Amino acid sequence: MELKLTIFLVLLLSTTILQSSSANPNRFIESSCQTTRYPLVCVHTLSAYATKIRHNNDQDLAQTALTVSLARAKSVAIFVAKLTKESPRFKRREYLAIKDCIEVLGNSVDRLAQSVKELGRAGHAVASEDFMWKMSNVQTWVSAALTDETTCVDGFSGRAMEGKVKRMIRFKVVHVAQVTSNALALVNQFAEKRSVKIP
C-alpha cells in the first residue's frame, strides 16, 4: 500500500512540474525565438512582455514583437532627427546621410504601424483567403520596413563616414533592424501555423 502511495505521489509531482514548465511564458518565448535570426536579441526584447503573451499563442508573440519593433523604430527616428539640429558640426555628406536616414526610418515606422493593425485584423479572419491576404500585407510591410532600416545603415558606409555619428546611428539602427527581422520571423511562424488550422 505504501509503495503504491509513493508511486502515486511521484507521478503527481512529475505531472505538476511538467505542467508548470510548459505553462511558463518565458519558455514559450525562448522556444519560439530559436526560429529567428537573432534569438538572443529576441528573448531579451520579448521577455519583458512575458506576462502579456498567452502560452503557445503565436499571434500574441508576433503582435508583441511587431509592437516592440515599432516602438524602437520610433525612438531611433526621434534620436536621428535630433541630430539634424547639430548640423553645423557635420560634414555635408554626413548631414545628407542623416536626412536620408530620417526619411527611410519614417517610412519604416509607418509600415510597422500598418503591420501592427493588420495583424490584429488577421487574427479575427474566419476565411482562409481573408487571413492569407492580411498576412501577406503584414509580411510585405515588415519586409519593406526592414529594407528601410538597412538602407539607413548603408548610408553611413565608407571611410568618409567614420566617426562618432556613424557609430551611434549604426549601433541603434542595426539593433532596430535585428528586432524587426525577428518580428518578421515570428509573423511568418504565426502565418504558417494558423493557415493550417483555417479551412
TrEMBL record:
Which SUPFAM superfamilies does the record associate with it? Plant invertase/pectin methylesterase inhibitor
Q: May I ask which residue range the UniProt record assigns to the signal sequence? A: 1-23
A GO molecular-function descriptor: pectinesterase inhibitor activity
Domain (Pectinesterase inhibitor): give its ranges: 24-186
- CDD domains to which the protein is assigned, alphabetical: PMEI-like_3
Pfam family of this protein, just one?
A: PMEI
Keyword Signal in the entry? The reply is: yes
Q: Which UniProt keywords apply?
A: Signal
Family (UniProt): Belongs to the PMEI family.
Q: Quote the protein name from its UniProt record.
A: Pectinesterase inhibitor domain-containing protein
